[in-house]
Give the backbone structure.
Amino acid sequence: MRDVKVGNLYLNSTPPETGEIFEQLLSHRGVVIERILSSARMVPGEYVQEQDEWVALLRGEASLLVAGENVMLKAGDHLFLPARTPHTVLSVSEGALWLAVHIHGEQGGEA
């Protein structure tokens, strides 16, 4: 089982006091996968990324502003954000847990 790594997304998933914790789980062939733990006590900030991103909310609820439109997510929902799409996490429930997949390389893919 060369290079095989086993982990658990829910292990050690206590949220920070404020803000978010970003943990890189994998970086391979232009794809970066992160686990994000969110505190309900966070200051919204706009993100505009140069790569496509697919996110899944595994636990909790979140309110986002994506390209000027309000988007509500609950556990199990996922969202594709094409490169350079402005997005802001407006609010999250305490302990929200995300899985984010950043796709570097060719831009403008389809979800």
